Amino acid sequence: MKQGDTIEIVIESIGGGGEGLARCGGHTVVVPFALTGEKAAAKVVHVKRDGTVFARLKNIEKPSADRVNPPCPFFGECGGCHLMHMSYPAQLNFKRRLVAENLKKIGGLDVEVMETEPSENVTGYRNKVQQPLGFDGKEAFTGFFRTGTHDIVRVKRCLLQRREARQAAEIFCDFANRRKISVYDEKTGKGLLRHFLARYENGQLLATVVVNGSSLPRWEELYRALTEVYPKTGLFLNENRKRSNVILGEKTVFLKGISQIDSVMCGVKFCLQPDSFFQVNTSVAEKIYRKVKELAVCRETDALIECFSGVGVLSAMLADDSYDSYGIEIVRSAWQDAEKIRRINNLERLTNICGDVNRELPLLAERYAGKNVTVVADPPRKGLDEKTRRTLIELNPRTLIYVSCDSATLARDAAHFVSAGFSLDLVRPYDMFPNTKHVETLVVLSKKIPDSKVGILK
Q1: φ/ψ of residue 317, rounded to 5
Q2: Residue 204 pLDDT
Q3: Does the global pTM surpass 0.85?
Q4: Whole-angstrom distance, CA of residue 446 vs CA of residue 458
Q5: For residue 377, what are the β-bridge partners?
């Protein structure tokens, strides 16, 4: 089998990235955008040394009942979506199965995984947009990188983004073209405009222009154009002169308008800066936070500790006058946001700590030795490192609630906790990112307690 060959295949399963998997001539064949059970012809585009074949669909002779027509004309070209050809019920089943398979194959944990909690909106759910700028020889445009490349696909209307964020990007492009402002060229390192970011929540817009320099010509004109449509707008400038694919530089300058977004979730007032980390799907984030609070407060505790607490919204929701609460976050700007939230909500028993989890947790372990402690962990995609896992095991919390954005690293971490004497009580996926391969998972682990019963909460 070689590049250019056309092969007849039957898709046997779906891989973790949403790609179809088949067998042909003793080879594993990977076919993007193919679904289980489909009989198809595919063209070989690459054969790896280990024999794995990568192929592109040519035509589908027998389509799956789960196949739908993608509503986006850029699907398959833009790298943003992976599952738009799959019906939404099938997407939810795929994500549940992915979590279960990773727990079993990676973690050796054969456990019940609940049905995936759906998103209220499968399009228009993203409250934040960040798009690179491209230039087609005539005008500037925003878009997304083509899968596996740095080629920018021109996407004027991304269906995953909220209408307000999309419109802000259109206003920005009109401004850039009207004033003929140069676009950054990654190959030469020349040109000014690099990225446009917009965050929209509760009628408030924060727009950030990333430039290869220190200023934006006629930015007042852009501000006026944005405020004509969105009166509550804040405009920011981010300086990024590095020749890399990192979106934001280290320096962000406030230009005019509102300096933050003010919002409320589950009764907690909070504020967001342009670069604050906050879940892009507000409604699903609220579902997860409500469930975490339900799970955390239903169990007797002397202290509640959130690791990797970010801007502190969840820590504030979990805070209560009946126990001590802590949020640990190493990024100083996020910790500062968390402190604002603590103050505006008058949370006297909440302490936000700016520091490394591995340094701060042992100190709290000493303080609450022999007492009931609940820990909530929401780590980055890479999961917990070995030192953090060991620190948490030594802390020996009564309950550990783990919110994961990568079920593979979750499986690895959960296996360590189970081997250390924790029981896995609950696994529930949430569809934070419809039409993509990504899934958020909520897990509850608890220490077995003699003469007591720890129920599985659903």
Answers
A1: -65, -35
A2: 97
A3: yes
A4: 15
A5: 307, 402
- In terms of Cβ atoms closer than 10 Å to its own Cβ (0-12, 13-18, 19+), residue 141 is buried
Following DSSP, what letter does each residue of 95-119 receive, concatenated? HHHHHHHHHHHTT------PPPBPP
CATH of the domain at 48: 2.40.50.140
Please give the torsion angle defined by the CA atoms of residues 147, 150, 154 and 160, in that order, rounded to the nearest 10 degrees.
50
- pLDDT value of position 455: 38
| 178 CA to centre of own chain | 34
- In 3D, which of 302, 306, 315 has the Cα closest to residue 392? 306
Question: Would you say how long the chain is, in residues?
Answer: 458
Range of the domain at 179: 128-264
- Token look-up 């079993």 returns 104
Local mean pLDDT, 10-residue blocks, the chain (458 residues)? 92 95 95 97 94 95 97 91 97 98 97 98 94 94 88 91 93 97 94 97 96 97 98 98 90 97 94 90 96 86 94 96 95 93 96 96 91 94 94 93 97 97 97 98 85 40
The reply to whether 248 and 196 lie within a common domain is yes
* Same-domain pairing of 189 and 292: no
* Residue in 424, 441, 423, 444 with CA at minimum distance from that of residue 432: 441
The b/e string for 5-19 (b: 16+ C-beta within 10 A; e otherwise) is: eebebbbeebeeebb
- 405 catalytically annotated: yes
Hunting for tokens 């970011």 — which residue is that?
Answer: 197
Q: Are residues 253 and 330 in the same domain?
A: no
Tally of domains within the chain: 3
**Spacing of C-alpha 431 from chain mean position:** 11
Compute the half-sphere exposure of residue 173: CA atoms within 13 Å on the CB side of its CA. Answer: 22
**Same domain for 254 and 394?**
no
Residue 457, domain member (yes or no)? no
Pair (211, 183) in one structural domain? yes
Q: Is 39 helix (H, G, I), strand (E, B) or coil?
A: strand
The one catalytic residue among 72, 158, 173, 405: 405
Q: Residue 361 has which token pair?
A: 């947790």
